[in-house]
User: What shape does this take?
Amino acid sequence: MFETLDALGGRVKTHADALAVDIPPSMGNPATGPVRVAGAEPGDTLGVKLLDIKLGDFGYGRVKGGGVIFDEMRPPVANLTPIRDGMVLFNDRIRFRAHPMVGVVGVAPAGEPVHTFYPGPHGGNLDINEYAVGATIYLPVAAPGALLAIGDVHASMGDGELNAGGLDIDAEVTVEVSVHKGLGWRWPVIETPDAWCTCACAPTLAEAIRQATSDMTTLLAQRLAMSREEAFILIGAAGHARIGQAAALPMDVTAYLRISKEIMPTAF
Ligand code: CA
Assistant: This one.
């Protein structure tokens, strides 16, 4: 079980904090870890299944420091948001069911360290809504022991995380890890109860979608014994390109290609 801090490192306790706290990206988005996984070696794939996400008592959303229409806003504005019995109490009139998801799940990258602010082949800050209880994220292991870290939970996050934050919150995240030999996946793959997703990040959404599509095409061709061309036609018919994070931040955007288990029951 990982005890995770919110994206501002637990600095927000009051509404005034939510308005005032300002930290550089190099201090933000902390992840708890690293945890060494016995038996995980470079070239393996680490499976991280989300068994439970226990949310803190309150989260926060902000207009501060970024987002796709930040230039239209009059910052700072903050909303301290209680969570009760799995419901988000957004204000006196609006409440909705929480959808706990984990923004950052990563292993030690190959080569130079990568800050937990950034996404990449090692996972990191992918901010993909599919990463909720019941899902497994598969990450390429680059260092002995994998060195797993987890953080940046959201009580709820809209696809795209358009205000550059979603509903950030602290949490307790319970996972089960598994080590897989010989899969050869170079980018994160997510298994949900009913789908498989290839994940990607790039400077533009178009590039990220292209990469996720190319990786899913290869996966479908291998698993379903078809040509890449047939697999691409199948994606055109039944693959869903979706946005993870596209919040106009100084970092790559993330996207993924989702295919139902009705079509591909298993990816390995
Ligand atoms: Ca994030």
Residues 29, 103, 125, 127, 152 surround calcium ion (CB under 6 Å). The longest strand covers residues 45-63. The chain has a mean pLDDT of 97.
